[in-house]
Amino acid sequence: MSKQTQEPALNPEFEAWVFTDEEELPADHRSGFIAVVGRPNVGKSTLMNAILGQKIAIVSSRPQTTRNRISGVFTQETMQMVFVDTPGIHQPKHKLGEFMVEEALDSIPDADIILWVVDVAKMPRADDERVAAVLRSQDLAVVLAMNKIDLAPAAALLKHSEAYRALAPAAVSDIAISALKDLGLEALLETLQQQLPLGPRYFPPEQVTDIQERFLAAELIREKVLQNLRQEVPHAVAVDVQAFEERANGKVYIAARIFVERDSQKGILLGKGGSMLKRIGSEARKEIEVELDAPVYLDLHVKVKPRWRRDDAELRRLGYA
Ligand SMILES: Nc1nc2c(ncn2[C@@H]2O[C@H](COP(=O)(O)OP(=O)(O)OP(=O)(O)O)[C@@H](O)[C@H]2O)c(=O)[nH]1
Ligand SMILES: [Mg+2]
Q1: Where in the chain is the domain with CATH 3.30.300.20?
Q2: What would the CATH number be for the domain defined by 213-317?
Q3: What is the overall mean pLDDT for the chain?
Q4: Could you tell me if the CB of 68 is within 6 A of ligand 1?
Q5: Whole-model pTM?
Q6: Is any ligand 1 atom within 6 A of the Cβ of residue 255?
């Protein structure tokens, strides 16, 4: 991944930096912040990764995968778009969920454009209505991305898109896309660019994200847990990277603890003879090696921390506060 020279994902105060080489930028250079919002599992992170051509946000088929705001910077000669991927907006059941929803809602007032992503292969649900109500209550520039068009026949897409349009604020542009199959993304970028205000570059052109490698490593471990385990375990998992060291031999040594809430979850995560943890570790290591472009030694441990999702101090320590 590109060099990361700035604040971690958890501190969004990057307005402080403005990288403008006035001589190089055209007079009509456009830029702005695009908050990617929607209910869980509609493809927000998949979409941001697809636009950037790089994986900076983890993805899974389970709802509530993303827990923090993550910025992805898309720079071209004539414009710079700063996408802010957010957790899915839902009815929270614990303090972690409350934090996630706040992370998403907090992205809205600072954004120049709201990119509202929906799953148009399905009819709107209560959480979509929740998102729509927030967007209708303010005067915002909203672009509605009807995602997952590859998953349903045209007649169903037509019916569903009418239902989403009926929920949307009055002045909304909508566009049909498939983030997974790379359909409609050029048209989406054009629509976004038309709505961007004139402005400078906020990030140097080579910078793709504000996240740190340490955070990405923790997220990729969590992604492999999400992808390998079912039911309640994935949501009860947090990953705490305790060591991230580049060794003299060029290897990166990463030690991380995976927290779960119950002994039974620890058993599932370990698997028979530790086989599940081994698999998760091996898959995570391979992907971290690709992202860091270096060999990685990954040392994983599982620890039970009862009710951490409801514990203020633990949430703060894990970056969820
Ligand atoms: N078929 C199809 N699947 C998609 C598309 N976009 C995303 N998905 C899948 O939808 C699932 C959810 O994708 P994510 O990108 O994690 O969704 P999200 O909106 O970021 O979810 P949260 O982080 O939980 O809010 C994954 O299994 C993706 O592969 C698409 O255009 N077509
Ligand atoms: Mg996500």
Answers
A1: 213-317
A2: 3.30.300.20
A3: 92
A4: no
A5: 0.93
A6: no
